[in-house]
UniProtKB/TrEMBL annotation:
Residues 594-665 form the Protein kinase domain. SUPFAM superfamilies: Ankyrin repeat, Protein kinase-like (PK-like). ANK repeats lie at residues 376-408, 409-441, 442-474. It holds the Pfam family Ank_2. This is Protein kinase domain-containing protein. The keyword ATP-binding applies.
Length: 665
């Protein structure tokens, strides 16, 4: 994208919050900077000696709140106080107290709006004006002292409210994503619910009561209703000061999630339409969090006491299927968005996503099939490798899992690990005898997948284990052509060092062309010393030019024709079907994913059929182009038409219009 503009401006806010490691943040920054000199970057960050040294020669502007800024902020916050609040009454009785509050807090807040806000919050419960003055005379001088005082105020509430506030605060701290007020209401209602009882509206506590109990230590976004701890420093402080109670909170959060998933409210099973799923998500806002995070905390707690809760989920096929559907949901809302999930997914496969080796061992001992599969043919081992759960992978292999088990796309656990560049899992699988040259859909190998994820280390491990360097996809691509076309010079050089050469024909020629366009002339020179062997046709005038002129050669390639045999070769504006699919991000392996059935229409160069998704059972219409095969490249005149159709369909997916009718069975 940056190539399209003369200058690109990138603003990075809060660089210090990018990662716990400042070095990771600097790596991120250097990666963006490497895009080119036309990119201009502006960063904001809190003070850091590491960042200060890195930006030593770069212009900096220090931003800090002045006293008048703090005073304006406090004046605005006081004006927004509820009319019936104690502090508002004190200020009406003694107007000069307002100025005293503003001046006193400004002098103690060290230029921090957060500290000013917390100091003002501490005055809200004071029962008389004398108590307000005493509090102003002894304001905490640091953030940690202020947070400590805020916790004490929470604990000084009536016992029931203090217990509620602490539970809510701990849940917000432990949650894997921002909770909303409605989610919090449903979570708290589960505390009182008797097992096997349905959840009803009458069970839900008042949302304002839940949030107000925390005494200003959490904030609620007005639009999304998302709850956050007031500041990341508060999160850090509470994680330390409340550490002994975090274990109990994680157990509570997990129990609530598991209990929610087996509610009788979901006894009808998975939703069969997008409308039904949208309604379920609205009525039961905690269901998506529960389905996607029920196992997230178990590696941090003693899961033994949760076995009864887990058994209730595992022994309920309806709940397992419903959980699998919700777990599979993405943020996209295209037609049939709720139906893209494997049917009959076993509980063992569902559990393999999380770091639960002991639980998996227990499940298998209790009779769960280690090779159990859903409609996508994915085993627990494949799922564990996909999500990088090395302990699960080791345990499943130890218990006899088939190392080369394949899913519906013929992918194995090794394919999945290679796609993610997970070196440790790749080594474990190879050590247990995984086939490094097994071919998945369209003849993709693990080596090709490692190249596609740009992991040189993963590529090295696979090559050293005997991966075939010259394996080709159905479209003629090899690991080397993929590396060149994506501009991964280090991987391309490594493969060449180990004997990889460009394949003869279109794929090799296109890789050569793109490598030159990306500035990899020296790599192209090495790989194309004999261009005819690669391209399958001679390069005119090549003998009279130096390789330093490669960019010029590349520009001339489309006009060149072979005359060696005395007959005109095919025009050079051909485009491989693989390239077309790559350009529009279309997945390969259609026949393995879909079953083509009844023909429902004819055209000049295509037919239209019904086809069924082998995984989800959904029925679609498919346009089948005639004469387009791996060995039959498209002409540029056809590329434009087909590409235009694909672009239009992708736009229709993004921007739905009520006049469009979607056929769904």
């Amino acid at each position: 994208m940056t190539l399209e503009y003369e200058t690109t401006f990138i603003v990075i806010d809060a660089l210090d919050e990018y990662s716990e490691s400042e070095n990771d943040a600097l790596w991120f920054l250097s990666t963006i900077s490497s895009v080119g000199s036309k990119v201009k970057i502006m960063c904001s960050s809190r003070f850091s000696t590491t960042f200060d040294a890195y930006f030593n020669s770069i212009e900096k502007v220090e931003i800090s709140a002045r006293d008048e800024d703090i005073e304006l902020f406090l004046d605005s916050e006081i004006a927004r106080l509820p009319t019936l609040s104690s502090l508002s009454k004190h200020l009406r009785a003694e107007p000069d107290l307002r100025r005293h509050i503003i001046v006193s807090i400004t002098g103690e807040c060290q230029g921090m709006f957060l500290l000013a806000k917390l100091h003002l919050e501490s005055l809200l419960p004071k029962i008389n004006r004398k108590a307000v003055r005493l509090a102003l005379a002894s304001l905490p001088g640091t953030l940690n002292d202020t947070y400590s005082d805020a916790l004490e105020r929470i604990r000084d509430q009536p016992a029931e409210m203090a217990e509620l506030a602490e539970l809510v605060l701990l849940w917000v701290i432990c949650a894997r994503q921002n909770l909303t007020v409605m989610q919090l209401q449903h979570m708290y209602a589960m505390q009182e619910l008797v097992e096997d009882m349905a959840l009803e509206d009458d069970d839900l506590p008042d949302g304002d009561v839940l949030t107000a109990a925390c005494g200003g230590l959490i904030t609620v976004d007005k639009e999304s209703q998302a709850i956050n701890v007031i500041h990341y420093t508060a999160q850090q402080y509470f994680e330390i000061s409340l550490a002994p109670k975090l274990m109990t909170a994680r157990i509570s959060l997990t129990k609530v999630s598991l209990a929610y998933l087996v509610l009788p409210n979901f006894s009808t099973g998975f939703c069969t339409s997008d409308t039904a799923m949208a309604q379920r998500l609205r009525e039961y806002p905690f269901i998506e969090y529960a389905a996607k995070n029920w196992g997230s905390e178990m590696n941090l707690i003693d899961a033994g006491e949760l076995l009864p809760d887990l058994e209730r989920l595992w022994s309920n096929p309806v709940a397992v299927e419903m959980t699998s559907q919700v777990w599979s949901l993405s943020n996209a809302r295209y037609p049939n968005w709720s139906q893209e999930f494997p049917r009959n997914c076993p509980a063992l496969v569902l559990a393999a996503v999380y770091d639960l080796p002991a639980i998996l061992r227990q499940m298998i001992a209790n009779g769960h099939d280690i090779e159990g599969r859903g409609s996508d043919e994915e085993t627990a081992l494949i799922r564990a490798a996909t999500f990088g759960q090395v302990a699960n992978v080791r345990t499943l292999l130890e218990l006899g899992a088939e190392v080369d088990a394949q899913d519906y796309m013929n992918e194995t656990a090794l394919h999945r690990a290679a796609r993610k560049g997970n070196e440790e899992i790749i080594r474990v699988l190879i050590g247990e005898g995984a086939g490094v040259n097994n071919k998945a859909s369209s003849n993709w190998t693990a080596l090709m997948l490692a190249v596609s994820c740009e992991s040189l280390n993963a590529v090295r491990i696979l090559v050293e284990a005997g991966a075939e360097l010259m394996s080709e996809t159905e479209w003629g691509d090899t690991a080397l052509t993929m590396a060149l076309r994506s501009g991964k010079e280090n991987i391309a050089v490594f493969l060449a060092d180990h004997g990889a050469v460009l394949p003869r024909g279109l794929a090799g020629r296109r890789a050569f062309t793109i490598a030159c366009q990306r500035g990899l002339q020296h790599v192209a020179q090495r790989l194309t010393l004999d261009y005819e062997a690669v391209a399958g046709r001679p390069l005119q005038r090549q003998s009279s030019r130096l390789m330093g002129g490669l960019p010029q050669i590349v520009r001339e390639l489309p006009q060149e024709e072979s005359t060696a045999s005395g007959t005109e070769t095919e025009p050079s504006d051909e485009v491989s079907l693989g390239e077309l699919m790559e350009q529009y991000n279309i997945k390969t392996g259609f026949d393995q994913r879909y079953k083509i059935t009844q023909k429902i229409g004819n055209g000049h160069s295509a037919t239209v059929h019904l086809c069924t998704d082998r995984v989800t059972g959904m029925v679609f219409a498919v346009k089948v182009l005639e004469g387009v095969t791996p060995g039959n490249p498209l002409r540029a005149k056809n590329f434009k038409g087909i590409g235009g159709e694909i672009q239009l369909l992708r736009e229709l997916q993004k921007h739905y219009h009520p006049n469009l009718m979607w056929h769904q069975k």
